[in-house]
Design goal:
Chains A, B: This is NADH:ubiquinone reductase (non-electrogenic). Two copies of one chain form a homodimer. The first copy, chain A, is α/β, with parallel strands linked by helices and 418 residues long. Chain A is 31% helix and 25% strand. Chain A is globular, with a radius of gyration of 22 Å. Chains A and B meet through β5, α4 and α11 of A and β5, α4 and α11 of B.
Chain lengths: 418, 418
């Protein structure tokens, strides 16, 4: 009887497995708790009003409508019964598997201070992005309404915590929004006076990049009006603002881009994980004691040449390809492919609306040309002609009109979520 | 000192007043509880996945960025102090006015059964639209997950209550979604079996249209697979479904398009209203006892030749023009314009993805040609080249690809809002 492959998570890794299993003749069930695949690399642009939600997400069912071998379930996984080889669903349902692929991604980590989350949302889902967008825009609105100078200043101070690519990208666009795009729209406040802080505990921003590019990025951000504060550990934060060391900074909008925590897959399996909760897998991406349970992407701790594979889309895709190859070989009774090896494509990050830094290892790029390469690469990786068209149009539009096209507040008019 | 004009509500009426007061030399404050102007005539297309939220809404500030004479406030009005001539805001603020324009629109009316709202949301705001979209899509997901035939059937039964233009438009697109667009995407359920009920208490649908067009619309809807039930008063509804007369119909998704209720403006002013809460205004659109307080649009009860002016966008715009003309004349010390007279442009409603009925009074149109006229008219009335481009693209895309482009579930994966 046909092999049952259950894949949990329709991110870059999970979808790649589905794609590469086309025609393999197995019965695939794809489970995700959202109805859409999300193009996370551009999520920061939704959070900062450059793109609309619909431009970087696709209903999973639609992507797979020509794959009768795939059943898609919108459901939340609560555990795994390794004895009976079944995935447990929140509504009580059970999905049996012969091969199980866990590609459930990661979420934010607050280093044991989960109480910080409500005041400093992270950026992983579309909901996170619209929440952050809402708070950004409402902060300006509240400042315009307020008559208290101190309160106004707090509303016009924005803090991004963590200076990896996401933090850098968020800070750059927020500064551009405040200093270039919004000024003409407010009558009582001067949004060019808004402060945008990029707060990093480590010694420099974009730590994964060469020093030269970090330095360049810092200068570019400062030109955009971002206050870059390195060596500045956040010791506390709340509705009133953030505390760096023992220096409190009144600020009503804080965004968390500091740490990630793998999803619960390790707990479901009851296996060993690293400190970030990633499942320790074999060099074949399987559990050491079960060759039919695969873990990949941000949920897995994988090393190549002793270096940990980074949590980026290309890595998840490569792992997805490898997992699919393993399953196909096994189905065909052929010898399994060798250990997984990660091929690093390079690091990139955008700085503001039209600059970027790219590290290809062999050589580096920065500035406007880097931005164009980054832009083309991302449009290329989007799914479907329509999205490519629409995203290109949105970028072209902001570029020509000096306006960001996605400035809607579509949730309650409250600064904090009730 | 300059005349202070305060306008509450940035819908079609309120924005028209702002537009026509350009250069009049008054100090305008525009107050709305949302940050965007919404193109309500296309809202049903957001609710039914044809358009994305960002395509039919525009940040009010951006629309008015070239109007230094206008201050925009994102705030909720709680009352009006007619003694001191001030508008009261939720946060305690007060906005003084010389002229006050109330264009605060309408909301749904449940005929004294407000408890029905949570199970049968209406369609007035972007949030309403995304809520309805979410429930529609989640109903199909829940049916795919369910193993209980009765439950599946209830999830695959959709009821639209009220067969005015909005109800007809919703029912048509939902049927198209279930019967033409989704079937290929589900493996366990057959969405072509989904039932879409259009429930009307009155004797025929589209009561405002000539009998011939109602009959044509009924036939077209039935061709799309909509079950049209006229003379069917809803006596009760809840999470389990709707009750028509004494016949219960199990159904998990109910949309309310039956009644409207004017906003609270009448209460704020403490004046006489009609049964729907509309403020009774003079033929100059002012309060009988205060020529400096104007009420217009869905919030006002206005009659022309003894016929009540309908709650449609063109009426609100015409009233906005009239109010601006009154204020300008008063400012210039010129004689005031005569009484307001409504010029009816015609009624139109779309039926499914590519048919419509239009009643121009003198002559009538139906079918595909009517749809094209309807479509062009609406694209023309959208604000800005970008929106026109994007909406046209979305329609063209659905037309060519047979796919609706806005199928995201961007809120919690729950059928009811917690």
């Amino acid at each position: 009887m046909t092999r049952k492959v259950v894949i949990v998570g329709a991110g870059f890794g999970g979808l790649q497995v589905v794609q590469d299993l086309k025609g393999a003749g197995c019965e695939i069930t794809l489970i995700d708790q959202r109805n859409h695949h999300l193009f996370q690399p551009l999520l920061y642009q939704v959070a900062t009003t450059l793109l609309a939600t619909s431009e970087i997400a696709w209903p999973i069912r639609r992507l797979l409508r020509n794959r009768p071998d795939v059943t898609t379930l919108l459901a939340t996984v609560t555990g795994i019964d390794r004895e009976r080889r079944e995935v447990l669903l929140k509504d009580g349902g059970r999905v049996p598997y012969d091969d199980l692929v866990l590609a459930t991604g990661a979420t934010h980590a607050y280093f044991g201070r989960d109480d910080w989350e409500k005041d400093a949302p992270g950026l992983k889902t579309l909901e996170d992005a619209t929440t952050i967008r809402r708070r950004l825009l409402l902060a300006f609105e509240a400042a315009e309404l307020s008559d208290d100078p101190a309160e106004r200043e707090a509303f016009l101070t924005f803090a991004v915590i963590g200076a990896g690519p996401t933090g850098v990208e968020l800070a750059g666009i927020i500064a551009d929004l405040a200093h270039r795009i919004l000024p003409r729209e407010f009558r009582r406040i001067d949004t060019t006076k808004a402060r945008v802080l990029l707060i990093e505990a480590g010694p420099r921003i974009l730590a994964a990049f060469p020093e030269k590019l970090s330095a360049h990025a810092t200068r570019s951000l400062e030109r955009l009006g971002v206050e870059v504060q390195t060596g500045s550990p956040v010791t506390d934060l709340g509705e009133a603002g953030v505390v760096i060391g023992d220096k409190p900074i009144p600020c009503r909008t804080v965004i968390w881009a500091a740490g990630v925590q793998a999803s619960a897959a390790g707990t479901w399996l009851g296996v060993e994980t690293d400190r970030a909760g990633r499942v320790m897998v074999s060099d074949r991406l399987t559990l050491p004691d079960d060759p039919h349970i695969f873990v990949l992407g941000d949920t897995a701790h994988v090393e190549t040449d002793g270096k940990m594979v980074p949590g980026v889309a290309p890595a998840a895709k490569q792992q997805g390809k490898h997992v699919a190859a393993m399953i196909r070989a096994d189905l065909a009774g052929k010898p399994l492919p060798g250990p997984f090896r990660y091929r690093h494509m390079g690091n990139l990050a955008t700085i503001g609306p039209n600059s970027a830094v790219i590290d290809f290892g062999r050589f580096q790029l920065r500035g406007r040309l880097a931005w164009w390469i980054w832009g083309l690469a991302h449009i290329y990786f989007l799914i479907g002609t329509r999205s490519r068209l629409v995203v290109a149009l949105s970028w072209l539009w902001s570029f020509l009109s000096g306006q960001n096209s996605a400035r809607l507040i579509t949730q309650k008019e409250t600064l904090r979520d009730q």
